[in-house]
Amino acid sequence: MKIFVASAWPYVNSVPHLGNLIGSILSADVFARYARLKYGKENVIFVSGSDEHGTPIEIEAKKRGVNPKTLTDQAHEYDKKLFLETWEITFDNYTRTESQVHKDFVRNFLLRLDKYIKVEEDEIPYCEHDKLFLPDRFIKGTCPYCGFEDARGDQCDNCGRLLTPKMLINPKCALCGSTPVIKKTKHWFFDLTEFNDKIENWISSSRYMPENVKSVALSWVKEGLKPRSITRDNSWGIPAPFEGAENKTIYVWFEALLGYISATIEYFANGEEKDKWKEFWFGNNVKSYYFIGKDNIPFHAVILPAMLMASGEGYVLPTVIASTEYLLYEGQKFSKSRKIGIWIDEAKELMDIEYWRFVLIRLRPEERDTNFTWREAIRIVNTEINDDIGNYANRVLSMVNRYFEGTIPTPNEGSYTKDDNNYIQEINTAPKRMGDLIELGKLKAGTEELLKLARDGNSYLNTRAPWNLIKADKEQAANVLFIASNSLRTIAVMLYPLMPYHASRLYSQLGLSEIESEKWDEAGELKLKPGHKIGKVEPLFKKLDLPIEDEVKLHQEIQKKLEEIRKKVEKNRPELLR
């Protein structure tokens, strides 16, 4: 089985915030790490890249009087370093839309869709002051559906509906604020009407697609799919490949979606097996997983599969599109201008990055918008990470050291009690339960199985009390610590996708090495053998020393620290990202 994993391409006009991160890149990384243990590293590829074309970058470049690529070069490298080095994201290929491989692939792919592309004159708002057409984000106005007054020309950020510039009420030029006039211009359209029934049949019959994704896609189909313009009149982007479209570029959403394929091609391009990319895009032995925010559902659940179908080449359609709702920050939407929220280059100064990874997955908004609060974040770290997992590990290994000279004791299976057998059953089955949820894109739900195993382990110790058994019945104490030690190996493997460094530390304390070589399907086996020597035992985690009991004081401390961090971090950001 080949597993293709993708996260939505982050747009490089700003540093991603924690909500952006959990919606796509961090979630995809947790899944990719799991998939490598489950299916083998050679059978998994994980890609994404910087989305750097389109109107917001062009607007910013015009304001600054520089070439757009000057801005995106810096932003791409800055974001890439944050993802790979700070957040431990294990991309096989983190590329960019300025990649020549990407640009060539997109142009060639779109030419193969000629059967479904038609040319029409379109009426587009035109700014007479700035002397340019106003597609997408060059124009803002009121959403005709929900009344949001700051909707863009391609989508409303409030209700998520896709728009066209002509649909906006009271439209204004995003550059100068003047009211545009309507002018005719020629554009190339992808005829989605041809795929109404095909998309409906595909999405309805999917056994794995989340219900929120199905609902959005079927709502689109019910309204009737309409032709969507592939071309734009702006200059910063991939030149349109169609005859007669020499002065036009490709709409960023069409090209970014195709970036999943081009990134795979690029990854294998420099090796000896250049065609190996096809193993992840064709055939019945492929599953593909996309991690996105809910505002990107229409593009991934309708436009992407329609393009893949239109190619006629047999590309594998998405298996799971794992879409999150919104993560709020202390009850409010993230806002750079109002300094609400935390950005991914600030977070590392506030807390251990792997604590952040665990906290964000535990708060992952899988079914509804979720509120990040510092009170809850501290509870997760101090109770779930430190007490449930860390304290359990320390208790078990300290007793192995104390009672059995640091070696795994020899059990007597014939004298196992009901409590012993029940916990062994829990160890045997927990990884599969967690894995089944992860493969449905339910990462937060999957962590419940990890925590249940750790909490049940603590309860098991309290019930069996090996500190008492060692005095009265050493054989029973050996049974308990043999089983509990083996549960820690299972916990380490299950923890690895979330907290790879700390999971490796736990694995090392068990006297084991190279946790990456573990097999997920064997994680529930009792593989630690009697006589095995454990490693050096020390606390895995430490609690956050913050005044959780006094929320006013807590917020004051966090805000003061955050203001200090921002002054330092913003100086080091590239020009575009400040």
TrEMBL record:
Concerning Gene3D superfamilies, the annotation shows: HUPs, Isoleucyl-tRNA Synthetase, Domain 1, Methionyl-tRNA synthetase, Zn-domain
What's the catalysed reaction? tRNA(Met) + L-methionine + ATP = L-methionyl-tRNA(Met) + AMP + diphosphate
KW Ligase (keyword) present: yes
Chain sites annotated for binding ATP: 336
| Class of enzymatic activity (EC top level) | ligase
Residues forming the Methionyl/Leucyl tRNA synthetase domain are 3-397
One GO molecular-function entry? metal ion binding
Q: Where is this motif: 'KMSKS' region?
A: 333-337
What does the entry list as the binding residues for Zn(2+)?
143, 146, 156, 159
Comment on bound cofactor: Binds 1 zinc ion per subunit.
Q: Where in the cell is it found?
A: Cytoplasm
Query: Which terms under GO biological process does the entry name?
Result: methionyl-tRNA aminoacylation
EC number(s) per UniProt? 6.1.1.10
Family of this protein = Belongs to the class-I aminoacyl-tRNA synthetase family. MetG type 1 subfamily.
Which function does this protein serve? Is required not only for elongation of protein synthesis but also for the initiation of all mRNA translation through initiator tRNA(fMet) aminoacylation.
Protein known as: Methionine--tRNA ligase
Q: Which organism is it from?
A: Stygiolobus caldivivus
Species lineage: Archaea, Thermoproteota, Thermoprotei, Sulfolobales, Sulfolobaceae
